[in-house]
Design goal:
This protein is of the alpha+beta class. It is built from nine helices and 24 strands. 25% of the residues lie in helices and 32% in strands. The chain has a 19-stranded mixed β-sheet that branches. It has a three-stranded mixed β-sheet with strand order 21-24-23, covered by helices on one side. A hairpin with a 6-residue loop joins strand 14 and strand 15.
């Protein structure tokens, strides 16, 4: 649903996909996910002084959407012009075309507190430590603006933000009353680091998410991910650690370091192992492989698993260390990674240049510096708003 929502923001959903999205958000169990998606859109297209206005805007849009969904269940709405701010279009199109007309077309109606901004005039900056935390009660916290210190207490767990870009879950040595789930989502141009209650360390790249119980119980530890996530799993042989990648794959470990790349615009879901041992299982064919350090399991679009014996491990985790690392990377592959970090759209105005890149560059470079590097490699491009046009 996260990927479908993003597709919807780009006005690329078919009527059937729109109906699927509406039906999903009509489910009361999806309320936390809807809040998170709204919050992520706000974080991408607005820059308030603090997180309080983001929170109030998230709450207000959520109430509007849910009230209209209850009134218009099963209704399939048409596409909406892409000229509006994408997060406003996404929030209002879900409530139906009439509601959009009401907010923007009637002079007698009170206008919403959303301010239209011209994203084309906003400076394109490299990404940074930005993420949205969705708590078990459905509320959201914009971690970029949250003050350092204790953020909340959930069950027997205290949530601590020790520094910018980090979040830690710490046990209070109390018996948990129930299993509570949180999720952290990074927008395009965001990254974040997380320590789970068992001591497992997680790094999220841009446009990624992880959903997890605030305290682990039972016979196994299970989390769910999207996008690109690096793990250093705390060892506990009596409680195996499992990562679910949608309905496509599952990774099972005991204690290890590895990175998962499951972006939907990449051709394969890759699990690259740096230390320990993991078992990768495709959930459709129920095919599995056990890989060793220095190997990479690749799940393709046909749900078949293959093992790359000598992947470039440094390249796979370069983002975690603040650099782009391209080794014989195609123009498309390199630009997909750049686009996620700078939150821009790549447009090829002609044939895609058949070139390959090798080398490193800092992820802190300005977009102008990135363009100069591309130009020196005979990849000619220009910026129009938040679009990089490759000529």
């Amino acid at each position: 649903m996260q990927e479908l929502f993003r597709k919807y923001l780009d006005n690329q959903c078919s009527p059937e996909e729109v109906k699927q999205l509406l039906n999903h958000f009509n489910d009361p169990g999806s309320e936390s996910a809807l809040r998170t998606l709204i919050a992520e859109s706000l974080a991408t297209f607005d820059e308030p002084d603090d997180g309080s206005r983001w929170q109030s805007e998230t709450d207000r849009i959520f109430v509007q959407i849910k009230s209209q969904l209850d009134a218009d269940k099963g209704r399939v709405v048409p596409f909406f012009p892409k000229s509006w701010i994408r997060f406003v279009a996404a929030a209002l199109i879900l409530v139906g075309g009439f509601a959009v007309f009401k907010f923007f077309g009637s002079k007698n109606e009170v206008q919403p507190a959303i301010v239209k901004t011209d994203s084309a005039n906003k400076e394109i900056k490299p990404g940074g430590n930005k993420a949205i935390l969705a708590l078990a009660d459905g509320s959201t916290v914009f971690l970029e603006n949250a003050a350092n210190g204790t953020l909340a207490k959930q069950g027997n767990i205290s949530l601590l933000k020790p520094a910018n870009g980090q979040l830690t879950y710490t046990s209070l040595n109390e018996k948990p009353a129930s299993v509570l789930y949180n999720s952290i989502t990074t927008p395009r141009g965001g990254q974040y680091q997380l320590t789970l209650s068992d001591g497992t360390l997680i790094w999220l790249n841009a446009a990624s998410s992880v959903r997890f119980p605030v305290a682990f119980s039972g016979k196994e530890r299970v989390v769910e991910v999207t996008g690109e996530v690096y793990f250093e799993v705390a060892k506990n042989p009596s409680m195996p650690f499992k990562i679910k990648i949608g309905d496509k794959a599952e990774v099972e470990v005991l204690g290890t370091h590895f990175v998962i790349n499951s972006y939907v615009d990449e051709p394969t879901i890759n699990t690259t192992l740096l230390e320990g041992s993991v078992k990768v299982t495709g959930l459709i064919r129920h095919d599995s492989r056990i890989i060793k350090p220095g190997e990479q399991a690749q799940l393709n679009a046909d749900n078949q698993i293959s093992v790359e014996k000598q992947p470039d491990a440094e390249q796979e985790i370069a983002w975690k260390n603040g650099v782009f690392n391209f080794q014989n990377a195609s123009v498309e592959m390199a630009l997909r990674e750049i686009a996620r970090w700078y939150d821009i759209e790549i447009i090829f105005s002609g044939a895609i240049p058949q070139k390959q890149f090798s080398g490193e560059m800092q992820r802190s470079l300005s977009i102008e510096q990135i363009i100069k590097i591309l130009e020196t490699n005979n990849v000619h491009c220009r910026i129009e708003g938040r679009k990089l046009i490759v000529q």
